Amino acid sequence: CLSNTREALLDDIWQWIKHPDDSDGARIFCLTGVAGSGKSAIAHTVAQRCSEEGLLASSFFFSRDVAERNNPGKLLSTMARDLARDPRIREHISVLLESDQSLATASLSRQFGPLIQEPCVRFLSETPRVAVIDGLDE
């Protein structure tokens, strides 16, 4: 976002990230709006700030115009790759894929638990982490 734009909304999102217990247990922040209203700019700003603060688990920005970013199948593999920056998660995913090679090409519903949910719960639960996903409607 450009400086001094959407500051109130960005502050609300940042408070939700930094104080998850104050948000009535809501673990998903869904930003909606009409096309062109700045949702992607906000998502990029949130991802950048989370990265700077060491809170970004992963980000994925769908785009109907870019082949590698308009495939839902790329979402979880990208998230798993990003999560694997943590050596503990890298080892976890490596062991999983060695023991079950079919997991690499499995359905998203089959991949989510072992590649995303389980490592996050097991290794990242001490600090809130953020996954930014933009353009689900692309």
Structure summarized in a few sentences:
This protein is mainly α and 138 residues long. It has one domain (7-134).
How does this model look, in words?
By secondary structure, the protein is mainly alpha-helical. It has one domain. The chain is built from five helices and two strands; from the N terminus they run ααβαααβ. The protein has helices at 7-18, 39-52, 73-83, 87-99, 108-123, and strands spanning 56-61, 130-134. Strands 1-2 form a two-stranded parallel sheet. The protein is globular. The model has no long low-confidence stretch (mean pLDDT 88). It comes from Botryobasidium botryosum (strain FD-172 SS1). Residues 5-138 form the Nephrocystin 3-like N-terminal domain.
Oligomer: single chain
- The end-to-end span amounts to 21 Å
Radius of gyration: 16 Å
| Total number of distinct structural domains | 1
* Count of alpha/pi helices: 5
Tell me the β content.
5-15%
The total beta strand count reads 2
Structural class: mainly alpha
- Inertia-based shape: globular
* Low-pLDDT runs: none
Largest sheet: 2 strands, parallel
Helix/strand order: HHEHHHE
Spatial sequence of strands, sheet with the most strands: 1-2
Mean pLDDT: 88
Helix content: 40-55%
